[in-house]
Amino acid sequence: MKSVLVTGGTAFVSRFVATWFVEQGYKVYVLNRGTHPQVEGVTVICEDRHKIGDCLKGIHFDAVLDVTAYDEKDIKDLLDHVDSFDDYIFISSSAVYPETLQQPFIEEQPVGRNQIWGAYGMDKIGAEEYLLSQVPEAYILRPPYLYGPMQNLYREPFVFDCARSGRPFYLPNDGSMPLQFFHVEDLCRMMQKIMEVHPKDHIMNVGNEEVVDIKTFVRLCYEVVGAPLEEVYVTEYKNQREFFPFHEYAYALDVTKQKKLLGNLKDLKEGLKESYDWYVEHENEVIKRGYLSFIDRYFIKQESVEK
């Protein structure tokens, strides 16, 4: 039985990763502080990654699946204490690419500060660079927006809420801004494939090859809920993050290297249906933001006054 160490294991991506590898028959260790419910079937190492001590001594991992590292210190403190492993796979981010680069972004382009993501992207760059300086054969994956079951961010769940409530949906501008997604199960499949074949490419973009505009994304969310969609286009208000869960930032990743390893990816509508089915049973686990109250206060009230 192969063993993997998953950092985190209690929220969205890391929780899904831990669950998926348990279901695939791996011995799964999770490293977290024990402040949230644990995935059934894992071996819990209840420690802060910055205060690990000797709890990893004497354990060999076929792979370290580092989902939760955000900066250089996160990588360093784990590497200083993990005793033995074959592969190290780090989930980085597409935020490492400056928005000024030609798109779609390819792995050979220089990384640097992205004005949309700011310190988050720069910290991911620091984590990547330190990891490769210590483990040159490590693998780095750069995803776009991740989605699927166990989603705890108020992205697709926000659209689901609007659909369930029979609300019209307020779209920024003309609804044509493109988004690129990647299902968390496909992320797991990618990591498993890396462990199996050890590809020569060690830094890889991952994501659906097709991008969709935000209007299509919203329409699919309404369809999986089974609700009719009434679109309202917001052209006057400039800060779309007040009422919409994605930044006003369109980008695309070239995923040619990923395609060499993975076959068909999960259909977006199918993946959103899985996300919705999970959300219906776990709504209290999602970190909700004030989009609805802002819409009610700013748009709907204003529309009432104009009438």
Could you please describe the fold and organization of this structure?
With 307 residues, the chain is α/β, with parallel strands linked by helices. It has a domain at 3-150 and 181-208 and 252-265: NAD(P)-binding Rossmann-like Domain (Rossmann fold, 3-Layer(aba) Sandwich). 34% of the residues lie in helices and 18% in strands. The protein has 9 helices and 13 strands. The chain has helices spanning 12-23, 72-79, 119-134, 156-164, 184-197, 214-225, 256-259, 268-281, 291-306; strands at 3-7, 27-32, 43-46, 60-66, 84-91, 139-142, 145-147, 169-172, 178-179, 181-183, 203-205, 212-213, 231-234. Helix 2 (72-79) packs parallel to helix 3 (119-134) and helix 6 (214-225) packs across helix 8 (268-281). The longest helix is centred in the middle third of the chain and has 16 residues, at 119-134.
